[in-house]
Amino acid sequence: MVETITATYVQEDADWAITVSGRGKELTAREPGIIAARDRADQLVEELAGDAKTTVVHLLNGSALDFTSAYMTARLTLPKLPPLEVPPPGSVPKQQTPASADKKPPLPPSKQLPKAVEDRKAPAEPAPAAESKAPAKQA
Predict the structure, then answer these.
(1) All domains of the chain in start order, with CATH
(2) pTM
(3) Compositionally biased, Pro residues: which spans (predicted)?
(4) What is the dihedral of CA 105, 109, 110, 116, to 10 degrees?
(5) DSSP characters over 1-32
């Protein structure tokens, strides 16, 4: 038989109070956000249920829909980041100076080619192939 366990959430300032009840017991906790509160509720359910099969109902203001809406909004909302600063065109980033902008950093010894390979010159480009001058078909 599947037992029902109820997890009730109440927002208290920035924290969330969680009450998990079922099987004649009640466990409580406090967490600093609804996502952390939901994770903590899962831990409390495991304590309460043990190996028994359970169904957990998460409620906010007595409503599973309110809880789901608040939880999913928190999960899908991007964190607030400072605005991106775009330098004006033609400016040089602070990390580079005009003198160092053209220079590439030296390769570490493990990535350098052996001297014999370095001294070889690249072969000249081959001459383009002569175009074939096949007679054109006449219609």
Answers:
(1) 3-76 (3.30.160)
(2) 0.56
(3) 80-91
(4) 110
(5) -PEEEEEEEEEETTEEEEEEEETTEEEEEEES
